[in-house]
């Protein structure tokens, strides 16, 4: 096996970032506080993206770390896209908060079905819909900028 062109510190940092990207929050990935302003988030993104851009490792022996470098860079970019926009950051924070609340409220799963709950076969169907009627294909979609045709071709 050939020697890697990554230092032990780079390998450890990459392993840590990869784990955070899989299990942590976007704030943890960028190493910023949840109340960080846009400039702090942008600075953290720029620093990480310079360090972990895949082009930086072009023609270097990275072994199994090549995929991790790519995945970490994609996660860093996604973190910036999400946290760099007020609207998407608000949605992310709201979803994260809802997930945390749901974990705290959810009771531990029972060992088996309880006698009070009907089985799937006994439960009444909820939200059932009638099957959709088959329709003829409508052809290619027209751009919104173009007016509808008034006469056949």
Write the layout of secondary structure elements.
Blueprint (H helix, E strand, L loop, with lengths): L7 H16 L2 H5 L7 H15 L12 H19 L2 H20 L48
Structural key phrases:
153 residues; mainly alpha; Helix Hairpins; 5 helices
What would CATH call the class of the domain at 8-105? Mainly Alpha
Radius of gyration: 25 Å
> How many beta-strand elements?
0
Full CATH superfamily name of the domain at 8-105: DnaJ domain
CATH topology tier name of the domain at 8-105: Helix Hairpins
Helix content: 40-55%
Q: Any idea what the shape is? A: globular
Through-space gap between termini? 67 Å
Number of alpha- plus pi-helical segments: 5
Class per helix and strand makeup: mainly alpha
Mean pLDDT: 79
Stretches where pLDDT is under 50 for at least 5 consecutive residues are 123-135
């Amino acid at each position: 096996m050939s020697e890697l062109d990554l230092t032990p510190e780079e390998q450890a940092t990459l392993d840590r970032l990869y784990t955070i990207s899989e299990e942590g929050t976007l704030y943890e990935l960028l190493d910023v506080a949840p109340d960080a302003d846009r400039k702090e988030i942008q600075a953290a993104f720029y620093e990480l993206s310079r360090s972990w851009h895949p082009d930086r490792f072009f023609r270097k022996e990275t072994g199994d770390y090549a995929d991790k470098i790519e995945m970490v860079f994609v996660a860093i970019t996604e973190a910036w896209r999400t946290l760099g926009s007020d609207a998407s950051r608000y949605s992310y924070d709201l979803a994260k908060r809802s997930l945390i609340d749901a974990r705290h409220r959810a009771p531990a799963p029972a060992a088996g079905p309880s006698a009070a709950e009907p089985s799937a076969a006994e439960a009444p169907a909820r939200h059932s819909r009638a099957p959709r009627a088959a329709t003829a294909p409508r052809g290619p979609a027209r751009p919104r900028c173009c007016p509808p045709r008034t006469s056949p071709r």
